[in-house]
Design a protein that fits this description.
Length: 199
Protein backbone atom coordinates (compact mmCIF):
# COMPACT_ATOMS: atom_id res chain seq x y z
CA UNK A 1 0.00 0.00 0.00
CA UNK A 2 1.34 3.40 -1.01
CA UNK A 3 1.94 6.19 1.48
CA UNK A 4 -0.36 9.09 0.59
CA UNK A 5 2.54 11.56 0.28
CA UNK A 6 6.13 11.99 1.44
CA UNK A 7 5.15 14.22 4.39
CA UNK A 8 1.99 15.68 5.88
CA UNK A 9 3.08 19.09 7.17
CA UNK A 10 2.94 20.92 3.83
CA UNK A 11 0.53 20.87 0.90
CA UNK A 12 2.39 18.49 -1.40
CA UNK A 13 2.03 17.86 -5.13
CA UNK A 14 3.34 14.66 -6.66
CA UNK A 15 4.94 15.13 -10.09
CA UNK A 16 5.83 12.62 -12.79
CA UNK A 17 6.31 12.44 -16.56
CA UNK A 18 5.55 10.03 -19.40
CA UNK A 19 7.21 9.57 -22.76
CA UNK A 20 10.85 10.36 -22.10
CA UNK A 21 12.14 7.36 -24.04
CA UNK A 22 9.93 7.77 -27.11
CA UNK A 23 11.06 8.52 -30.64
CA UNK A 24 7.92 10.51 -31.41
CA UNK A 25 5.44 12.76 -29.69
CA UNK A 26 5.50 15.23 -26.85
CA UNK A 27 6.66 14.43 -23.34
CA UNK A 28 3.81 14.79 -20.85
CA UNK A 29 3.92 15.55 -17.13
CA UNK A 30 1.33 15.80 -14.40
CA UNK A 31 1.17 17.33 -10.94
CA UNK A 32 -1.40 16.13 -8.41
CA UNK A 33 -2.41 17.18 -4.90
CA UNK A 34 -4.43 14.41 -3.24
CA UNK A 35 -6.66 14.68 -0.19
CA UNK A 36 -4.88 13.26 2.88
CA UNK A 37 -7.45 10.45 3.15
CA UNK A 38 -7.26 9.41 -0.52
CA UNK A 39 -6.85 5.68 -1.09
CA UNK A 40 -7.52 3.39 -4.02
CA UNK A 41 -6.24 -0.21 -3.99
CA UNK A 42 -5.57 -0.13 -7.74
CA UNK A 43 -3.24 2.87 -7.58
CA UNK A 44 0.39 2.05 -8.28
CA UNK A 45 3.25 3.08 -10.54
CA UNK A 46 1.41 3.49 -13.86
CA UNK A 47 3.88 1.14 -15.60
CA UNK A 48 2.72 -1.65 -13.27
CA UNK A 49 -0.97 -1.11 -14.05
CA UNK A 50 -3.12 -2.38 -16.90
CA UNK A 51 -4.42 0.16 -19.39
CA UNK A 52 -7.94 -0.49 -18.16
CA UNK A 53 -7.00 0.24 -14.54
CA UNK A 54 -5.06 3.36 -15.54
CA UNK A 55 -8.09 4.69 -17.39
CA UNK A 56 -10.33 3.92 -14.41
CA UNK A 57 -7.92 5.63 -12.00
CA UNK A 58 -7.63 8.68 -14.24
CA UNK A 59 -11.35 9.35 -13.75
CA UNK A 60 -11.09 8.83 -9.99
CA UNK A 61 -8.00 11.04 -9.60
CA UNK A 62 -9.38 13.86 -11.72
CA UNK A 63 -12.62 13.80 -9.72
CA UNK A 64 -11.17 13.49 -6.21
CA UNK A 65 -7.86 15.36 -6.29
CA UNK A 66 -7.63 18.69 -4.54
CA UNK A 67 -5.89 19.92 -7.69
CA UNK A 68 -4.34 18.40 -10.80
CA UNK A 69 -2.78 19.59 -14.04
CA UNK A 70 -1.21 17.99 -17.10
CA UNK A 71 1.19 19.71 -19.49
CA UNK A 72 3.10 18.64 -22.61
CA UNK A 73 6.35 19.79 -24.21
CA UNK A 74 6.40 19.19 -27.99
CA UNK A 75 9.10 17.45 -30.05
CA UNK A 76 10.64 20.67 -31.39
CA UNK A 77 11.18 21.93 -27.84
CA UNK A 78 12.59 18.54 -26.83
CA UNK A 79 15.11 18.81 -29.68
CA UNK A 80 15.96 22.35 -28.58
CA UNK A 81 16.62 21.75 -24.86
CA UNK A 82 17.00 17.91 -24.66
CA UNK A 83 14.58 15.39 -23.20
CA UNK A 84 15.72 15.68 -19.59
CA UNK A 85 15.21 19.44 -19.51
CA UNK A 86 11.93 19.06 -21.42
CA UNK A 87 10.72 16.66 -18.72
CA UNK A 88 11.64 19.18 -16.02
CA UNK A 89 9.88 21.91 -18.00
CA UNK A 90 6.70 19.86 -18.38
CA UNK A 91 6.60 19.08 -14.65
CA UNK A 92 7.21 22.74 -13.81
CA UNK A 93 4.44 23.87 -16.15
CA UNK A 94 1.99 21.39 -14.60
CA UNK A 95 2.94 22.28 -11.02
CA UNK A 96 2.69 25.98 -11.81
CA UNK A 97 -0.96 25.60 -12.84
CA UNK A 98 -2.13 24.06 -9.57
CA UNK A 99 -4.68 25.95 -7.49
CA UNK A 100 -4.14 26.00 -4.60
CA UNK A 101 -0.40 26.28 -5.13
CA UNK A 102 1.58 23.45 -3.51
CA UNK A 103 4.08 24.13 -0.75
CA UNK A 104 6.30 21.20 -1.77
CA UNK A 105 6.83 19.21 -4.97
CA UNK A 106 7.54 15.48 -4.69
CA UNK A 107 9.39 14.59 -7.90
CA UNK A 108 9.71 11.08 -9.29
CA UNK A 109 13.39 10.51 -10.11
CA UNK A 110 16.79 11.59 -8.92
CA UNK A 111 17.13 15.03 -10.56
CA UNK A 112 15.06 18.14 -11.08
CA UNK A 113 15.45 21.80 -12.02
CA UNK A 114 12.81 24.48 -12.06
CA UNK A 115 12.30 28.23 -12.06
CA UNK A 116 9.29 27.81 -9.75
CA UNK A 117 9.73 29.22 -6.27
CA UNK A 118 8.42 26.04 -4.68
CA UNK A 119 10.62 23.71 -2.62
CA UNK A 120 11.02 20.22 -4.07
CA UNK A 121 12.41 16.81 -3.22
CA UNK A 122 13.32 13.92 -5.52
CA UNK A 123 12.36 10.32 -4.83
CA UNK A 124 13.84 7.46 -6.84
CA UNK A 125 10.96 5.17 -7.85
CA UNK A 126 8.65 7.56 -6.04
CA UNK A 127 5.73 6.43 -8.19
CA UNK A 128 5.90 3.08 -6.40
CA UNK A 129 6.15 4.68 -2.95
CA UNK A 130 3.79 7.66 -2.75
CA UNK A 131 0.20 7.92 -3.94
CA UNK A 132 0.48 11.55 -5.11
CA UNK A 133 3.41 10.70 -7.40
CA UNK A 134 1.66 7.51 -8.58
CA UNK A 135 -1.44 9.58 -9.36
CA UNK A 136 0.69 11.99 -11.40
CA UNK A 137 2.20 9.04 -13.28
CA UNK A 138 -1.29 7.77 -14.13
CA UNK A 139 -2.46 11.15 -15.43
CA UNK A 140 0.72 11.76 -17.44
CA UNK A 141 0.55 8.29 -18.98
CA UNK A 142 -3.16 8.27 -19.81
CA UNK A 143 -3.15 11.78 -21.26
CA UNK A 144 -0.11 10.95 -23.38
CA UNK A 145 -1.57 7.66 -24.60
CA UNK A 146 -4.74 9.49 -25.64
CA UNK A 147 -2.62 12.04 -27.54
CA UNK A 148 -0.65 9.28 -29.32
CA UNK A 149 -3.88 7.59 -30.41
CA UNK A 150 -4.93 10.90 -32.02
CA UNK A 151 -1.58 11.10 -33.83
CA UNK A 152 -1.98 7.49 -34.96
CA UNK A 153 -5.13 8.48 -36.85
CA UNK A 154 -3.07 11.10 -38.69
CA UNK A 155 -0.04 8.85 -39.34
CA UNK A 156 -1.30 5.24 -39.18
CA UNK A 157 1.86 3.60 -40.60
CA UNK A 158 3.85 3.90 -37.34
CA UNK A 159 1.62 1.89 -35.00
CA UNK A 160 1.43 4.66 -32.42
CA UNK A 161 -1.86 3.38 -31.02
CA UNK A 162 0.11 0.27 -30.00
CA UNK A 163 3.67 1.45 -29.32
CA UNK A 164 2.80 5.02 -28.20
CA UNK A 165 5.93 6.31 -29.95
CA UNK A 166 8.43 4.06 -28.18
CA UNK A 167 11.30 2.57 -30.22
CA UNK A 168 9.79 -0.81 -30.98
CA UNK A 169 10.93 -2.92 -33.91
CA UNK A 170 7.77 -2.10 -35.88
CA UNK A 171 8.17 1.61 -35.23
CA UNK A 172 11.78 1.64 -36.45
CA UNK A 173 10.87 -0.39 -39.54
CA UNK A 174 8.07 2.08 -40.31
CA UNK A 175 10.56 4.97 -40.03
CA UNK A 176 12.87 3.21 -42.52
CA UNK A 177 9.93 2.63 -44.87
CA UNK A 178 7.98 5.89 -44.57
CA UNK A 179 10.52 8.37 -43.17
CA UNK A 180 10.10 10.76 -40.26
CA UNK A 181 6.99 12.77 -39.45
CA UNK A 182 6.73 16.26 -37.94
CA UNK A 183 6.07 14.52 -34.62
CA UNK A 184 9.38 12.63 -34.50
CA UNK A 185 12.14 13.91 -32.24
CA UNK A 186 14.96 14.72 -34.64
CA UNK A 187 17.73 14.45 -32.03
CA UNK A 188 16.77 10.85 -31.15
CA UNK A 189 18.35 7.82 -32.82
CA UNK A 190 15.86 6.45 -35.33
CA UNK A 191 18.38 4.17 -37.06
CA UNK A 192 17.08 0.73 -37.91
CA UNK A 193 20.58 -0.60 -37.24
CA UNK A 194 19.72 -0.32 -33.56
CA UNK A 195 17.78 -3.54 -34.15
CA UNK A 196 18.96 -6.92 -35.25
CA UNK A 197 16.99 -7.63 -38.40
CA UNK A 198 17.10 -10.62 -40.73
CA UNK A 199 18.66 -9.82 -44.10
Amino acid sequence: MLENCSQYDLLEAGCDEAGRGCLAGAVFAAAVILPPDFHDPLLNDSKQMSERNRDRLRTVIEREAIAWAVEAVPPARIDEINILNASFEAMSLAAGRLVPAPQLLAIDGNRFRTTLEIPWRCFVKGDGRFADIAAASVLAKTHRDEYMRRLDAEYPHYGWSRNKGYPTRDHRIAIRTHGLTPYHRLTFNHDIDQLTLPL
